[in-house]
# Entry
Amino acid sequence: MGTTEAGIIRAIAKELMTIDNSQIFDLKDIANIQFECGKCHGRYVARLSDWRKVPVVCSNCNEPLVKAESLEHEALQRLKDALTKLLESKNPDLIIRFELTTVKS
# Structure
């Protein structure tokens, strides 16, 4: 077998050995939400039940995270409101799950 064939076989074997790891969790499994500053990588972590406002400034380096009243700020506020309402819902007919997928080779 030549080097070309061996390389092709190794490539095929690598593809066959790829593992798909998926994790599924309920909305109620979310404990915290985390915001990370893109500049200093400082993190703001809030319990979902205690999350009151969207952080607009990094508490570590004081750089802006999102502009107040911007579309991002509004979307994050709506996300907070939606998650709060869904977590408070008593509807037994609706189960919300998220799936995280990572591919490892």
Observations:
- Helices lie at 3-16, 71-88.
